[in-house]
Design goal:
It holds the Pfam family ig. This protein has about 240 residues and is α+β, with helices and mostly antiparallel strands. It folds into 2 domains: about 100 residues, SRCR-like domain (Mac-2 Binding Protein, Roll), CATH 3.10.250.10; about 100 residues, Immunoglobulins (Immunoglobulin-like), CATH 2.60.40. The chain is built from 3 helices and 17 strands.
Length: about 240
């Protein structure tokens, strides 16, 4: 796992942590990236949320000032300006750029990456809308996420006739839900949500893309296939009759 140091074209970024939605606040001005300082301790969740929204990271969960022994050039930013504008970089005050040994750390609510979802075992057919599985069969739905934070859990949710709401601990950044005795009530969309405790806060990811399942009966599917084959042969014979 590597720390995020992503240059943002919007001139605002959070660096030094595993997620682009948490870390030390830096802004780019006059071609220079510098940390932002909070001299008078005016930064709060509202001003932090302006930064998070600017980065498409939700709202601020925490805003803290960290002191260290490193002196570096910094930017001072007008907090009232940040609260009133959607462009925090426009609030840099050049006359207050100087060297200090403190930084401003922001953690945003959309910290966790969106999980993925897949189907294994018991797959009968893959088609454009999703997957078709046989009535009475067993199958496994897997939830997984890009490695970022240890631990956590996955929640499997469905909008089926018999809704599911299952939770399993994350092992190697994934969880595998074994579902048995498939019935027509299991037809519908399935999604995963990833949960983790980070920075003394509980976070939940956005839902994964939906995985759609439909239930097929073996005999019914065989009959449909036979009928389609017979129809195709009849059409072929008719075409030959008129052609010759």
């Amino acid at each position: 796992m590597s720390l995020c140091l992503c240059s943002d074209p919007r001139g605002v970024r959070l660096v030094g942590q595993l997620s682009r939605c948490a870390g030390t606040l830096e802004m780019q001005h006059q071609g220079q990236w510098r940390p932002v300082v909070d001299i008078y301790k005016r930064w709060d969740l509202k001003s932090g949320s302006a930064v998070c929204q600017h980065l498409d990271c939700g709202s601020a969960v925490s805003v803290n000032t960290t002191y260290d022994s490193t002196s570096r050039p910094v930017w001072r930013v007008s907090v009232p300006c940040v609260k009133l504008t959607s462009g925090p970089r426009d609030c840099v005050r050049l006359e207050y750029s100087y060297t200090l040994s403190s930084t401003l750390d922001v953690v945003c609510s959309d910290l966790l990456p969106q999980p993925n979802i897949s189907l294994s075992d018991g797959v009968f057919e893959v088609y454009q809308q999703g997957f078709r599985v046989l009535v009475g069969s067993d199958f496994t739905i897997s939830c997984f996420v890009q490695p970022q934070y240890p631990g956590g859990s996955f929640q499997l949710i469905s909008d089926t006739k018999k809704p599911l709401n299952l939770t399993l601990p994350a092992v190697n950044h994934s969880a595998h839900f074994l579902l048995s005795a498939m019935g027509h009530a299991h037809r519908g969309n399935y999604t995963c949500v990833y949960h983790a405790d980070v920075y003394n806060h509980s976070f939940s990811s956005s839902q994964s893309p939906a995985l759609y399942l439909t239930i097929g009966d073996l005999v019914t599917n065989l009959i449909i296939r036979v009928v389609l084959i017979v129809l195709a042969l009849l059409i072929f014979d008719v075409c030959l009759f008129f052609f010759y």
